[in-house]
Amino acid sequence: KRKKGHTKLLDWISNTQRSAMAPSLEIKERLHVEKLFRQRCRNDANSTTLANTLEKDIQTVFNSPEKFLLELLQNADDANCDNRPVDVRIRFYDGYVAFSHNGKHFDRYDVEAICDNAQQKFNHKKCNLNKTGFKGIGFKSVFVIADCTYIISNKYSFRFDRDYPDWKVNNKNKNNPDDADDNPCASRYPWQIIPIWTEPYDIPKILQLNPEDVNFLFRLRHNNDIIAYALNLLRNTPRTMLFLRHVNNIVIDNHGCVTRIDLRQLLNSHHRYDLYLNNVLTSSWFVMGYNITIPTAISKQLQTIGPQECPEKLKKAKCIDIKFAININLQDKLYAMENATLFCYLPTSVKCGLPFLVNADFLLNADRMQLLSNAWNNFLFQCIGRLHIVSLASIALVPSYRLDVLNLFVRQLQPYTQQQFINAYENGVKSELRNILFVPSNIDSRLLKYEEAIADSTGFFKIFTGIDPPLEYRLACYDLNGINKLQHQFTLYELSTIIEKYSCKNTSIKFQRKLLSFLMEHYVGPDSLARASLGNIQHCLSGKRILLASNHKLISSDNAYFPSGKDNPINPKFLNIEAIHPKLLRINGLKSWLKMIGVKELTDINLILEVENVVNKNMDSFTAELSIEIVTLLCNIDTSLISEDSILSSLPLVTKTDHLIAAKYCYLPSLLKPKVDVENLVDIDVGFVAERYCLLSKTESLKKTLLDIGVQQILPLCLQIPFQELDNNRIDCFQEYCQYILHDNQDDLMTINQAKIAYIPLLRCLSKESYAQYFFGLLMEHEDAVIQNLRKFENLLQSNSKRCDDDNTSTTSYLAFMLSYTPCIQAEDGNLYKMSELCSPSLRKRLGRRLASLLPQMKCELGQSVIKLSPDLMHLLGARDVLSVEDAVKLLQVVANDNSLKQQKYFKRIYLAMIKSKYSSDEEKQLRSHNILLLASDNSLQHFNSLYFIHGDDYDVANSDKLIKSLPGLSNEAMVVICRYFKIREIKRTNLQVTYRNFQVNKDLKMDIINLFKLTACIEDDYEHDKVDTSSKWVTTLAKIDFIAVKGLVWVYKLKPSIYFEARVLLRDRQLLYERDCPRFKRRLLDILVNHFDLSIEATSLLFELASMTTEADRLDWLQENGCDISKLGNSVTDKQRSSAPSARKRKSTSSHHYELTEGDDNNDNGNHSSKSLNHASRTDVSCAAAAMITKRRNRMETEISLKSSFSKPFVISLTDDQSMFTLNSKYHELDHLSKLENTTLFCRDDQDLEYHKTLLKAQENTTFSDNSNKSKAKTSRSRKMNLRNNTLPDCNEMHETIDLPLNQQRNYLSNSVQANSLDNSRIFDNEKIEVDKTLDTELVGDNRIGKRLVFDYLQQRYRSKYPTCTYKETEFGFILKGVDERNKILSLEVIWRNCNVQGDNLIDMEIIKNSNKRVIKIKSTNKDEEMIFRVSGDDWKHMRALGDRYRLFCVYGIGQRDNITIKKVKDPASLVFADALVPLEIRFKL
Q1: How many separate helices (H) and strands (E) can be counted in the chain?
Q2: Cα separation of 511 and 497, whole Å?
Q3: What is the pTM of this model?
Q4: Which of 360, 1213, 1416, 1454 is most buried, most CB within 10 Å of its CB?
Q5: Which residues contact 120 (CB under 8 A, 6 or more apart)?
């Protein structure tokens, strides 16, 4: 019987027998434990693997220390005897925890099960549905918190000990005993399943254990705080034991602090359970249990689930139990919990949004905290949904809990639950909602179905009982908690939809006052329900006939008015106006409420609104009688209250021709004296108001009324009317534009519909001069607005995504379309033209007055007015800016018959207009179909088919009737376009052959021209390659060219030898051929070379200036006087040459000379051609030649050459206190990446250029140069060296500097009005020596004035040299330059010295204002050569950062030494600080 589980056998044995049997039983249990020890204590590979796996699984599954407590409670609940209650006692003291219960003691099977892993051999709990555990791993959770567990139950006494000594002994018996101390001993043994027999004297005596109980003693491996936390968690959540089968009492003893938890069931209730903590009631629960039969389909699905997920007992079960536990609050009401936890006899961590606790046989994961996704759990959730509705029906039958039913109703689980469980729960709820009654009714104690119950949130049926019995039958109890959970809610919105039906049931004053009082109470202010459903009160009750009128009829608030107290004489019949019954207004506050729902006072503004409603409703069926009645009413009220967008502007009015036209399209007749008498401007009826209106009221009142409703008294210029708002049937030609939009350009329809168009009405009347005068005068008055509007129209077309690949000009504006729709504009010749046929002012200006007079142009004098539209407006209105083919042919034919001196100019203007017109291929064919004569190079007129064109610049062709004339100011590219228009044959250079006779090489002429180009090279630099010697490039090229004087120079066309062209100068195949008998052949030679070398404008001017001088000495002197650097010439010009050729400029006392240019023949006898032979004409001829070349070059230049940049040294910055220190040291000069930080340095060049100044060094006695020994350092720094004589310092007011320009500015340096002595790095002063004592020197250096003076003189000299043609004017604090710069743009440059008369340091020293662009300069000075340290104040630093790249820092070095002065510039020093190019020496912050 003991083997079969009859534990009562001990009760049948007497005490004597028990004492006699004890030794044998104890021996039996010990042998059993020792046998298990021997079976499991094996130190092999399998044992080690099992030990590691077991330890890892325990730490993974039971990762929270408090889980062991739940597993022990579950084991105690499963160890009950005959369903008797089980008491649990937990004691915690000094590192040990004792867990005891009075349930069933351990037997042989229990010992072997607890020593096994996952109950591999024992299934007595797996098959018992009354047992919770089935996996056999729950007890292993104790090893998370304990390293030694003692089990004392009846005669069994054993333990699981990680630190058992035999582990180490057995480990040392291995072959390698040295490893025993290195590795943990227990890791080789699965000590969690190896029982060790323990004698009573080996059990710690920490806690007193009751031998009658099943005792577990744990030696803790964690600190005590974790165990205390687990015990406190159990103490604070006593509902943990709510669903345990047998555990009803738990005692927790924490170091003497005892807590008792009891679960008690009321004797008179099967559903009420109370939880007590130390005999104090903590919570009460309404528990309902249901037994659910498992369907066969679900049972079959359970068979497919593995044993680790589903136990055998569940697979064999026929039914299961599901329990709900609903919390009862202190008021003895059912309380809906927020997100209650699911239980599987013990709590899980799953929350799904149910308002009560649910216990079921869920299938959980290994740690029993989460639900598994399978069919069984889905079935349970479906059952929970069905039982939820069933339980609510049961609760509704309990009178004390009847009103709490809806509080516990949940139709859908929370979204964070798994979707399959949400769907299963919903299916269960829906299946029962259709059939079960659980909603308490408002009538008696009946119950309603959820789907038919209605919640009256307004309380209307409480007051008006019996008004709607069918609906009242479905009303839920008003006192029901959570009534808003019902599906059907009777809100103010529902009431407003049927309020008319209830109002019509009784029209007595008493009922109506009661009804209005209720509505006023509930629909007053922004009521939350009304706002949520409709938005406002007026919308909710608008149009409802709930108001009793004075005639005892129900009216709506839309046409209800307050009684005025007297008869209103202006109350026409067409207005549907009713007054409210006066007795209703006796209700306090009703009038204010009626205003809120739309009842209005009978005022002028309300009458206007009523008239607008009538107009809107009758727009499609308007009659002349109704129009007259409306106008009559409006004449008797204040029409100034009519808004601008009122529909009354569309009120149909009767015109003189008895047509009905909208008021906004009508005009005042002459009888009403409008501002503009349109009847006199046009001779047709365009919508003048009929005179019959004038009989209705006074003239002044009628005129004011008509104007207020939109009738026009002028012809307005409309600029902001969307196209979709316009009536395409109106009489001012909009129908033509609509047809143009809809049929001709359907792709543009969407764009035009969004466009704001500009128009002036009645454009078809433009042929009448009086209207044209008014029309164009109006355009002139609002010209800017019209231009802006038309440009917006064009921008809208261009921005349209559908037109991104189309021609944006295909769709025109309304004005442009109508002006070009028919000939309506009067021209100067008296005819009518379209606007597209008239010439724009820009085209007339391009052609000139004479040619423009031959083309049609708009008449300017209309009546007493002069019409002059701007070119922009004419272009936007459609006037053509291009020359049509017909007009071009007409003008060419007229010019061909003109024998005046201006014929060449006329051809040029026609050519330019034709080029700008950009003819298509079809237009070119049309142009060539006419008989046109063009101007040949010999100024004769030839047919275009007989002309040729040679492309190039390196030749001087004589007059020929076979070449088209290249007109001055027209580039070769422009002539190519003209040739393409007329198909003039272009001759390539390769098809031309040069023939000449009697040639002679002229080396002297060649040498003289080489010298001229050498001198010109002083200011010409190569922009594409840095530091390329221009002089060497030109000389090398010229050296390879032979200067050959010939006779009879002819160009023969190879393809047609009969065609030849006489030439004067020709450069081809390294031969410069020229006819010696040609007048001015030398100037022509220079012209060819200027084009060949592509000289700049300035170099061309210099070349011709030098050529005008007779001797080399004069040329050198002139260059030095104008500051040119002739040191690049090297040894080509020696002192001997200068002395042997005395300067004619020095011999003459006057400063102005006129040189004559004499053209002579080459001396073929002696072959000697000196520089004297290069005679020139007067300066007037030279200037003309230079101007011609400059013009030719400017026409050929398409883009400006990018200017080179110089770079300055890197700086190091340091901030101290509220100031900053800067240092500039030469050791940073070699950093290449820092040299890119400075974009431009306008006053420095490489010191290596000083090598080329040897000649000039000898000539200048008053100037010295400093040659830096360190070439690489000088090249990187690009500093300017200015040397002063020893023992001399110039006076600040007298001295001036001549500093070389940067590479990109040398071309702008030449000027006769500026004295420029050199282009080197020197500083030149007057010959007079100025002695300055040391005291004065110290003062000048101390107050920084000398450095500022040096910088100011440099800026003065630099800008005067850069802009020599500008007017110079000195001011009180600086100077101003005004004129035209090198790009022919207007220039205004002003330099201001802010503190020139004040000592001390300011934020700004100087300002440079160039065309309103301002830059500021800060100047620092030092007497050192290479290093500067200075402070920057806090204000300076803020100023420096705020200005950014407009801030310049000029540093002047070597002032005190007086032998070497250097100026260096830093651009935007603040950005260099942030780029780490200027590094602070130190920084101090003030907090």
Answers
A1: 47, 51
A2: 19
A3: 0.45
A4: 360
A5: 136
